[in-house]
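Handout, section B. The chain below has 778 residues.
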Amino acid sequence: MKAILSAVILAIGVATLASAQTLPFDMTRERPQISAPTVPRAVLPAPAQSTSAASTTTAATTANTSFQRYVVPFAKFRLEGEYDRKSWSIYLTPEQAAAPARFNFTYQNAVVVAPEASQLTIFLNNRSIGQQQIGSPDNPSAVSFDVPRGLLQPGANLVSFEATQRHRTDCNIQSTYELWSDIDPAKTYLSFVEENAQKLSGTDAIRAIGVDGAGKTEFNLVVPALAQPGTTKPLLRLTQGLSVLSGMPNETFSFSTDSLPPTGPGKMTVVVGTPAELQPLFPTPAAAQNAALATFVRDPRTGSTVLLISGPSWQSVSAAIDIIVSPTDRDPSIRRDLLVTQRWSAPDAPLIFSDTNLSFSQLGIETTEFSGRRFHTSFNVGVPADFYANAYGEATIYLDAAYAKNVRPGSHIDVYVNGSIATTKPITAPGGGIFRKLPIRVTMRHFRPGLNTVTLEAMLLTDDDDVCAPGTTADKTARFALFDTSTFQMPDFARVAQRPNLAALAGTGYPYGRSNTPTALFIDRTDTDTLSATATLLGQMAIVAGHPIAVDLIASPGSAGDRNAIFIGPISQIPATTLSQMNIASASQASWRPPLPGQGAQQETAATVDEWRSRIGGGLMQLQIQSFQDWMHRNFDISGSSLQFIPGAEQIFTPSNLNSFMIAQGEGGTANATWTIVAAPSAKDLRAGADAITSLGEWSQIDGHVTVYSAKTGKIDTVPVSRFDFVTTQPWSFTNYRLIAANWLSSNILSYAFLLIASSLLIGITTAGILAKIGRRG
């Protein structure tokens, strides 16, 4: 990791021009010995006041709000079922934490929610600031609560929404899926009356960038010298540093050369260049003529505040960029213990590398008593990129819980991993009971590198629900209790990386985030769309890797040598040799052209072949074989690839014209390198695809050998890996190799059966030979 001392050596110039006011880039968190001078405050324009169709009598939105901070990091936010709680953190500057504030939100609920038995509670830093009866089925309702003075703190602040909902009429478990309350992200915000809350000060301002009303975060970089050689590398380092500092889930980056984009919530404009380059566009302080400068400046033309990074040369500009980015640097060889997720899911997820036991309290689950029919709660854990245990082994939840006397047999507890059912534990004993360390085995085949969500759901049946007498749905007598002394235990698992493995790229940035040498980066043309897409992708990879990824620009695939490499651009600009290396059809450079709006898609070769196959009678047989394979996989977890002695060759992939974006991975020019291609039919498609694929819901779907995205349908498809190579990541140990062999044999059952038969025959022949030698002769 770079020493932060380098940030001390580079001074930040501060000057006041007649046409601009500057704010120092406050590095007090990294350099406590330096105090920022007092300068005039910069005032940001406040976002438009949100309105709602209806307002509850609880409170009304403050009319004279001068500054708002949106708080929901999702495009859509829904609380579902009879009990739901979601938590995340927002970062506040010291000025915002000290200012009086109100918490405002707008919600609407399902018509079947019973208002007399349903409540919505808002928590800030684990303290309830208000409770609202859920009763707005016809129109959205606006609610506002005062935030107690002193509750907010500089830095991270935990926000929690908790909903308890009951059905108006029905008492069965199925009816609980009809319960929901939607929170409008565009009308959910903290409002501050004091103008001082808008003050920007260095890294605090970057961390506190927040989101807009759709849960998005946007960095807009204005670089007049964007096309000049030597600017791309420091700019990509800057964008990755900004991404890691903010840590937001839906970040995008855009580049422009000739104008400042409009500002607003969740947006930050960054102006980069020498004073001479910026002179026609933006006035720079005199200090930028002599030294590296990183400061917030108010543009006198628009009144907006921007982050200015300048210096007399691009060497000085790079030094100013290092002032901002160096605190985020981390030695890739140093193991981290957490995946940073708190900006959208708190707490941060522990990263598990071996046999580990974690209590539910450590995982963010509190002791909860529940009076409904379907209880669910979730927690997050992370596993490393070299996780290799998807075909054997089990994690275990040791459950501390209790159920009431009226809960009858037939009730059950289900566990899901990443949305897929992993196990079911029936409740068989009548008359109530207390579970103490009840083991619930959880198959690990649904775990993937990076972040994993484990959901526990209890289905509780009673005789009273069958009768469903009036008032039954509102009964608050507890049926189930979950205690935070429950634990999650992950056993030792095999540690070996696989190539290709796009899931590891999406989960932890592997292999680029763990490389001690810079990653080779091929960009044929640095136009604004291509560079914006590159910055957005690398920014997301930096977040999951936990640090910026060092890159070196290359002009040809041969320049990569034995290094890991990334190739980004329109497919026509990707070298044909690289496409062939990744098993991507080179003909795609000419044939991959999505239809224009209003133009019907041409029938593709694969569809034509399938049509002719069905004409000659092969279609029915193929359908029956496919149905049998699906049945085997569904009931016995046996796939076609499991019934092979050796993996089949990787098939040549041709992107469909319905697809508009593609990520592919494979072996590089040498056996020690991993290459990844990010391509699209055009630079515009590349940028749109990068913005879409890096969003919170889509990034985790990246998997396999190839992942493609369709802008027309919003659908993501993956091509599974047919053949992969092992990449050693751990020192040799008998235990690890035994676990690797166990997982490989579990994935290749014919090979396992062959070895078992061969071993049995060998034992039999050996035993017969020994008996023949020691036996009596007549």
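Note. Residues 34 and 403 are 58 Å apart (CA to CA). Compare this with the example in section A.
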